[in-house]
Amino acid sequence: MYGVLINNCYVTDGFGKKADVIDGKGCPIDPILITGIRYSSDLQRAYAESSVFKFADKPGVWFFCQVQMCMKKHGMCDGVT
């Protein structure tokens, strides 16, 4: 009945530095850094692969994304990503 749509992803070092990795349409900004988002056939799961990276002199990297619900029954998930 419902599916998920992922967009507007960014990474941060937790100390104010931020870099966008997925745009508002769910497309990768730099496909070398992170792949396009892939969805399961039932649109219940989404994933992307990433090369290992970090911000210089920072211990970690955090990913944040906008996750939207869509109704498959009414075609609201079709053609969005």
Question: Can you walk me through this structure?
Answer:
Helix content is 0%, strand content 37%. With 81 residues, it is mainly beta. The strands form two sheets. The protein has a three-stranded antiparallel beta sheet, with no helix packed on it. Strands 3-4 form a two-stranded antiparallel sheet. It is elongated.
Jot down its keywords.
signal; CUT_C; single chain; three-stranded antiparallel sheet; two-stranded antiparallel sheet; 81 residues
Helix content: under 10%
Count the beta strands. 5
**C-alpha termini separation:** 18 Å
- Unreliable stretches (pLDDT < 50, length at least 5) are none
Structural class: mainly beta
Largest sheet: 3 strands, antiparallel
Shape: elongated
Multimeric state: single chain
Strand neighbour order, sheet with most strands? 2-1-5
- The succession of helices and strands, N to C, reads EEEEE
Furnish the topology, listing elements before pairings:
Blueprint: E1 2-12, E2 18-22, E3 38-39, E4 46-47, E5 62-71
Antiparallel strand pairs: 1-2, 1-5, 3-4
Report a brief summary of the structure.
Helices cover 0% and strands 37% of the residues. The protein is mainly β and 81 residues long. Strand 3 and strand 4 form a beta hairpin.
